[in-house]
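Researcher: Next sequence.
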Amino acid sequence: MIAHRLRGFKGLTLIELLVAMAISAVLIAAIYRTFIWQQKTYVVQEQVVDMQQNVRVAINRMMREIRMAGFGSISDVLALPDLGNGRGVNGFTQVVTPGSTTITIVGGFKPIRRDNGDPILVASASGNQITLNYATDEFDGNAHRFICIGGIESNTVQSRSERILTLDEPLRYTHPPGTPIYKIHAITYGLRNNDDGVRVLFRDLYPNTVSSQRDTVAENIENLQFEYLDANGITTTNPGDIRMIRVTITARTRMPDPEFKGGAEGFRRRTITSNIHVRNMGVNP
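Model: Next structure:
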């Protein structure tokens, strides 16, 4: 009776099994190909976003500092003789030292602060002395002596004792309590290769606590160009005539895409050009 019932059920033939396996293989291959394509698209989009963010961060930082070039009525310190660290501010005698692929700018970029972030301010000021509301070692040493008081006059620190700064020249203006104090720096931007051979945008800050210190602003920056324009929008090489700086920066993706035919070696690239007005050029101290 049981054997009779079993003879009523039909199994799969070999041909049917092979057809089912073939269909399954095609479906699995299609699903796998779709997965690989989506994964590749995700990786490419992630690299493009990273590249765009990279170049925006780089150019935004440069824009902020270039706009501030010359802040603090720094003509007095730019005219300083050589005191062992070069003339002017650590060897730089112009608000903007122009170059086609590098730029150096000088200004009171950095308000001095305590470790907790609170600003260090003038408590009292007269003659050639300033008393601060908190002690600082920002102006220790010949290379670190460049100071801007309230953004309206520059000077150099001759000596420091606790909260008292003795300046080389008498103050020209009255500075009430609460006036901010800025440290005057020279900043250089340019390109170099890092230890891994990657082209990066660097930022040098003078003076440094370590003279060889160099800050990497952004990686995978292939090209950096500066153009300098006067008040009439005409290209100039005279630092005193510069009123606007045109910055062009080109970044590429971190990894190449062998299937991408739109760029050399499979890299995707983005180029951004920005016009930066130098606010403090041509302003009388």
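Model: The mean pLDDT is 85. The longest strand covers residues 181-193.
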